[in-house]
Amino acid sequence: MSSLADKPAKMSIDEYLLWAAEQPEMPRHELVDGIPVAMSPERARHAITKGEIFVALRSAVKKAGLDCTVFPDGMTVLIDSHTAYEPDVVVTCGQEIKGDDIVAPNPVIVVEVLSPSTGYVDLGTKLAGYFQIDSVRHYLILDPVKKVVTHHERGADGVITTHIVQDRNISLTPPGIDVELIEIFATATG
User: Fold this and answer.
1) Would you tell me which CATH number, out of the four given (3.30.70.920, 3.40.980.10, 3.90.1570.10, 3.30.70.1050), belongs to the domain 42-185?
2) Which one of 24, 56, 58, 146 is separated from 174 by 20 to 30 angstroms, measured CA to CA?
3) What CA–CA distances, in Å, run from 123 to 21, 78, 110, 115?
4) Model confidence at 63: pLDDT above 90
5) Nearest CA to 68 among 181, 155, 172?
6) 3-state SS record for the chain
7) What is residue 2's predicted lDDT score, i.e. its pLDDT?
8) pLDDT digits over 105-159, tens only?
9) What is the pLDDT of residues 12-21, one digit of tens each?
């Protein structure tokens, strides 16, 4: 197993992916401007909300019969040559995925669940980063305490709009699915 001390000050995506493949599952890391950053342990409400949005998205994709795959956390989304994130949930469409793949190809929907330690990153740096990827059409930020979703959506014209959503469906087109918020926040703890 390689340690951070064995790596150059800044890693490229290729160096990071090789290094990350050698690491134990915990703690997980993201690559931020060439530096691996360990991810903090999760609180129960974060893990529950993440699980619920995964189930809701997977169910909606299956119901619609789409050629999309819904991944829970652990899949890497490449932002640029020195940055890679591991969103809480990612939906990819239109590309075959092999069992040993660690990078999510063609992400269409990216989801982050807010936590006290990283909320500012999810609301700023990651927002800008995810929309650098041409395939990303929706970035959902779930607040498990307020039980609200901030839905950033890139339209066909490339303009990104933001919707604050509570107690109703979120329409995600493309790929062409609807997700009910009541399902997502039903079991979230206070």
Assistant:
1) 3.90.1570.10
2) 146
3) 28, 18, 13, 11
4) yes
5) 172
6) CCCHHHCCCCCCHHHHHHHHHCCCCCCCEEEECCEEEECCCCCHHHHHHHHHHHHHHHHHHHHHCCCEEEEECCCEEEEECCEEECCCEEEEECCCCCCCCCECCCEEEEEEECCCCCHHHHHCHHHHHHCCCCCCCEEEEEECCCCEEEEEEECCCCCEEEEEECCCEEEECCCCEEEEHHHHHCCCCC
7) 44
8) 999 999 999 988 777 788 889 999 999 999 999 999 999 999 999 999 999 999 9
9) 999 999 998 8
